Structures are given as C-alpha cells and as structure tokens.
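User: I'm preparing a small set of examples for a lab meeting where we compare how different chains pack in three dimensions. I only have the primary sequence for this one, and I'd like the structure in token form so I can line it up with the others. Please keep the answer compact; I'll paste it straight into my notes.
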Amino acid sequence: MAWLSTEFYFYKGSAPCRAVWMTLKIFKVDYEEKIVDLLKAENKRPWFIRMNPQHTLPTFNDHSFILWESRAIMMYLANKHATEETQYLYPKEPEERAKVDRMLFFDMGTLYHAIKEYFGPKIHQGLPPDPEKENLLKQSLDYLDHFLEIGGVPYLCGEKITLADIAVLASVTELDALEYSYKCYGDLNRWVERVKGNFPYYKECCDEGVAMTRARVKQLEADLKKQMEKERKASLTKK
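Assistant: Understood. Below is the structure token output for the 239-residue chain.
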C-alpha cells in the first residue's frame, strides 16, 4: 500500500534531525511531523524497521519513496523543491555545488563523527568524555575555523547560506547542548553567531532539541552519581 502523504520521522534531540527540519522549513515543504522517541526505542519497533531497516533518524517518506541519512535527505529536498529564489542553497553550477558537497561530507565524516566519538560516554552513560578522542574533536574544529578564515566570505561556501551551513550548524548545536565552548575558535564562533542570527528557522528547529539533550545528559550524570554513591556506601557496609 502506497503512502498518500509526505512524512518526516524525527527526534528533536538529534542534530541530524534538526538539519533536515531546518531544510524542510526553508524550502517550505508540506509534510506531516512524526516524532519518534529514541529514548523509548520507538525506532526499533517492527513497523519502523520495515520502513527503514537501519532504524535511523531522520527518515523521510515522500509518498512511499523512503530515504534516510540526513545529508542525503537535504540534497534530495533541494533537488526536488528548490526554486529560482532558493537555488542558492544548493547551487546547480558544478563547482559551486561541489563546494557545498565537500562541506556536507566534512560534516558527516569529520566534524560530527568527532563529536560523537568524544562525547559518546557522556551522551550514553553520563560519564566524562573520552580523553583519547579529544584531539579528534579539536582537530575538526581547527579545520573548520581555518576553512572560515581562508574563505574570506560570510558563510562556508560563499556570500549566502547553503545546505552546508545548515548541516554544520546543526552539528555545532550538539556542542551547545553538551556545554562545550568553542569561543576560542574566533572565525567559527563569529560564523555560528552569524548563521544563528540570519537563518529564520534556527530557534524553532534547534532550541528545544538542544535543551532536551542538555537535560537528558544532566539526568544521566545525576543518576550515575547516585549509583556510585550507593555502591560506595554498600562497600563500606560490607567492611
């Protein structure tokens, strides 16, 4: 049976989901919101796995054409919905488009990868970040800061915001959620403030999700602290 509508399956606390959400908004796509709660493992339910065997979010169902991987969804949306007025977000000219693609792949394979690697213990268990992965994150932020410094333009790929800015900004919001300061990266920090100030859907699509992640991590840390204190008292009792 074919789906009769366009559906966006997402979780607000996910940075890749926020990237697609902002893209849907700026292209003014009509869609149904389908919230999937990762904390309740709703993405592991049989009905979702039938749709997306990889059970990842975001997932986009466009009248039975089902797509996952956030950057692939963003590129698809641009290819299908960009108008003359919005084509700048994903330019048609090969060299200009390649610049956007390069930064999308940098975001996926370098920046967001480093964020997940470093903060994995904190996000999933409430433990401190992995010190062995800290240089990985710092190097990715160094790269990004340097790209912005040598680019000489307001945004990652030119004078206007593109899909690359949307995707990278979404990844950086994960640093905001985890209260990791990047103010020492001057060009990066100025770019973040510029995009946040000039992108009309930033607050709508990001603020709540950032707050959700921040609250969840703090709860994990509090629960871990209680558990450790409980175990400490139990060990003293045994002595």
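A couple of notes for your slides: The beta strands are 6-10, 32-35, 59-62, 65-68. The longest strand covers residues 6-10.

User: Perfect, thanks.
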